[in-house]
Amino acid sequence: RAIAMGTRAATASALATWTAAEAAAALHAGECSARELLKAATAAMGRTRQLNAFVGGVLSTAAADADASDERRDTTRGRDDARSTPDAGSILDGVPIAVKDNFCVRGAPTTAGSGMLRGYEPPLESTVTSRLRAAGAVIVGKCNMDEFGMGSANVNSASGACINPWVARPAQRPAQSPDDGSVDDRSIARSIDDHRLGPRSAGGSSGGSACAVASGAAILAVGSDTGGSVRLPAAYCGVVGLKPSYGSVSRWGLVPYCSSLDTPGFLARSVSDAAVAMHVTHGSDPLDSTTNSRVDRAKLGRWIDANDDVGKFLTRLEGVSGGVSGGMPGRFRRNGGSPFVRSKVGMPLAGWRVGVPVEYDVAECSNEVRAAWSETCELLERLGASVTPVTLPSTAAALAAYYVLAPAEASSNLARYDGVRYGRNGAVNGGYGIARDGELGRRQTTRFKPGTEGVFVASGGREGFHESTASARSRGFGPEVQRRVLVGTYVLGTDVTARYFDRAQRVRRVVSEEFARVFSGGGGGGAGGAGGGSDAFGLSGRARGIAHTGVDLLLTPTAPTVAPLLYGPGGVGEGDQSGFDQSGTGRLAHSAHTTTAGYAADAMTVPASLAGLPAISIPVGLGFESGMPVGMQLIAPRGCDVELVGAAWHVERALADAAANGGGVGPGVTGGDDKDLGRPLIGWGRDHRAQGTVDAVRFSAMGDFV
């Protein structure tokens, strides 16, 4: 019994930092079971429940899925021809994962973070979750989210705000005595504003998924990305966030927000884990006409097989002796046909060109994010890549276009929530609604029409259909959803369509064309550009100018600041959302346009979404002023998802080496940044992941913030 208890304790501890590959190795070596991993995950969910990352508790199907996974392994071990390690398709067998609450899962409610769907159990299973389950993954729970995916801070949820598991560690700057200039040690503690230590936003709209991975409650999580809803929470919570090319992963079973932008994505502890999840779920789906085979699934599988992080846990695919071979676009055929083979010792990205868009160096970008961006450019150069500034002139208009197009599509997609087909009954005396509406709040007298499947019929109330629908939406939708539905309905009006919606569509097309020119060699315009990005990185002094020969990747910050505060002055969880401060604290400054100013968090992620490009956010370290995670974003041409994860993996390894040398640890005890102490500003490794899980437990023990 003592041995068993020790094994469970070790499993719970390891779950906080294990990657999917490491968990698969432990499972197939018999060091733990899927049931023990599930118990560790549920224990972590309980310890961190105050973070509000999950809704509805543990799924009723989780235990059966874990037992089935253990049974498959026991059966395999009993065969003489059994292999001791899994292949690329079964690395997730028995691994606990979390799913955003806008993916339909059989046997579990799907609310999309809205009171309108509270208690709704869909009769179907999403393609993403069905493919993950077919690979043996154990879905432990549904994650909190902004209502219908509308938000960047996970505060627009019917279940309450989701809390970032990280605790801020702001720089402690000692104050000098005005008389003799001496340092008063007691002033160190007084120099930190108390409000800077409060709970922070987990990002949105997939904040619950990011929080689940960062807090140690799940090894991998599924999210959806419309304008940055996977990448932004990943940056705020210190995890990897992958948004595949639009159409490469099926949207079937995903509650729609903006159908032309919605993309299933993945939040993980490593680039390799995100690649494995995409490998399992990627591919054409007859239930989703927008899916395609633009990304070569076999090539992605070969990369996973050859990857150092998972290669020792996977059986080599037949006919592959290592590396990625064949089937690659011409511009990526380097060094014998593989972009991931080292051409020089320690320079795996030799020959690659990485562009830095000067327009992304916006005024809202904090000092610590800008410094991490600069150091990441230097890291890429040390890896052999050529870093050059590029210009995307329409970037400034992309955010405005997004907030016209997305509400317009949302107003159409959400028209079904009228209290008849979906949603709660809107009438006080009779009316329309779902048969389960009595469970949602106020009990009402219900009459069922024979032959109907639990749909209310009018019971003689004075309200008509339109009044009942308006009442249902007023009570079922939150303020942000109502706001965007109203905006979308307005911009689709006959008199103003050309002024708003048509113009936004033209901006979207121009943004896509500018990305295509930058990647193909058009250069995207002349020298210069807003924001002075070339000066910020010192590239103009090297006489490089704006790239006109095409780049392979783009590097930008994922967010202009670290995670902002939820509560207190200017917090995103307060009634008045405000604009971002540049002080590096992640605090929001007061603004007259309080609601729209909060949309600035999406400025870095929206352009890639409008163009349907693959992008990935990687944590690069802790901010030198706030001590909160900072994320950087890599963007690749559409369909080049394998090349994207390959380059990101090399960056991730370099960051782990920097972390081993003391990089990316945040502010010092007595002030100053890490460079003043001789340490690199960036770096991310296993110790960083462990620190996030420790912070999650500390925060949960402090009380109920939601």
In short:
This protein is of the alpha/beta class. Helix content is 34%, strand content 9%.
Total of DSSP H or I helical runs spanning 4+ residues: 21
Low-confidence stretches: 1-7, 80-89, 183-195, 312-344, 426-460, 522-545, 575-594, 669-673
Structure class: alpha/beta
Q: How many strand units?
A: 13
Main sheet: strands, sense, barrel: 11 strands, mixed
Major sheet: order of its strands?
1-3-2-4-6-5-12-13-9-7-8
Strand content: 5-15%
Which whole number gives the mean pLDDT? 78
Name the shape in a single word.
globular
Helix content: 25-40%
Distance between the ends: 39 Å
- As a whole number of angstroms, the C-alpha radius of gyration is 25 Å
Please characterize this protein's 3D structure.
With 706 residues, the chain is an alpha/beta fold. Helices cover 34% and strands 9% of the residues. The protein contains 21 helices and 13 strands. The chain has helices at 2-15, 20-28, 34-47, 62-77, 127-134, 186-190, 207-214, 231-237, 271-281, 297-306, 308-311, 367-382, 395-413, 465-476, 479-491, 501-520, 533-536, 594-597, 606-611, 641-660, 686-702; strands at 54-58, 96-100, 138-143, 220-225, 240-243, 263-268, 353-357, 386-390, 553-557, 579-580, 588-589, 615-622, 629-635. The strands form 2 sheets. The chain has an 11-stranded mixed β-sheet with strand order 1-3-2-4-6-5-12-13-9-7-8, with helices on both faces. Helix 1 (2-15) crosses helix 3 (34-47). The protein is globular. It starts with a helix and ends with a helix. The relative contact order is 0.14. The model is unreliable at 1-7, 80-89, 183-195, 312-344, 426-460, 522-545, 575-594 and 669-673 (pLDDT under 50).
